[in-house]
Amino acid sequence: MDYYDVIVIGAGISGLLSALALAKEGKSVLILEKEDYIGGVCRSYEIDGYRLDTGPHAITRLENGPFKELMDEYFDVVPRFVPFGKYYVRIQEDIKPFPWNINAWLKFSLIPKTDRLLIMKSLFNTLYVLNTGKDSATTPISDILPSNISETSRNFINWLCYFTVGTSIENTPISRFIDNKTNKRDSFSYIGQFYDLLISEGATDQGYPKGGLQSIINAIVTSFPKDKVKLKTGEEVVKIEHSDKIENVVTSQNIYECDTIIYSGFASDLPNMVDLPFEHTEHLNSIKKINSLTIWLGLTKKIFENHGSEMWVNTNPFAWVVPTSNYDPSLAPNGNQLVSFAFTLPDEYDVDEMRKRAFNTIVEMHPEIENYIDMVHYQELIPEKAAWSINSGFGDVKTPIKNLYCVGTDTEKRSAGVSRAAYSVLRCLDTMRSDGNL
Predict the structure, then answer these.
(1) What CA–CA distance (Å, rounded) separates 158 from 144?
(2) How many CB atoms lie within 10 A of CB 275?
(3) Which of 275, 352, 364, 415 is deepest in the core (most CB within 10 A)?
């Protein structure tokens, strides 16, 4: 029977980062991935001469965030990042830069002036209440919004909720919007967060990886220390065996012995592999995934000129538009443009109907675009494994079984995407150290 210090189940971004860190800490690591590819929803592939990512991505907190900490500590090869540029808000034909601070918000003419003042007043009142002890994790955004704001203003806030949390303003907790901007792993300090909001200059610490998302995965794999990491694809884990602690991992092809397991799949699927206490299983079953649709268009004409992305607020469904080839022209054939359009989907949906609605939304906003389409590709994805919402559960890094840990975007609430995954890996490393396993 093969033995490893650590077995990592799943070769998505969280699993790969965990494997790299643990191998650099001297552990022998086996990565088991059921698919025939690695990277999960953080990878790239070729379609008709275009290099597509798994959904649009902006890598956040590159100056001092969790992913930066992992890169500094463990990467031998560091990806190159292009500044992500501005976020633009588009309402009908009007487009303006996203208002990152109070000064910009007060001048943000896409929203009626009265609404801007009412929303600011609500924000001040709410932060005062939170510092007196009210729970921001159970208070929805809808509770602090004035009832008499316009539909456009409400749509704007709703867009932010859907694309940062995956749910509506009625189900988005206030805590999501006063999230830590630093890599501090302690409790929230609301006054500090509000200060950040007052002086913020925008998404200055965000970037897009040169060469696409695959460059991140390639950098991780290239940084694996020699003879410390073994990666097996096409091998699905069917059972985790344990007594008082972890013992073996059983796959469709083999049995492996180990001291520690890092599970990076869906936390809600963990009970299918290992016996867990009923209460813990019930909690994991309450986790709510986020569904998304991305439409990739290859265009023979450069229609999106801005260096940045667009937030389409008054469309149905809402959209986030990222002209990827504006950051790296090599992702599209010479002279062509590659653009991704991301749409958050409801829990229950008809794939064909949503594809049609989403494509029609694109054409309605840019009627001429159909004349320049060279490639169309659809992706149904789960960009976040858990919605940071009020009426759904969240996993945790630590499990009831000794030496079994979880990582991923359903084990950590801070931030989103790659940053959230990185936070989970850092917290897992901290937990293993406190347990005496690292």
Answers:
(1) 13
(2) 12
(3) 415
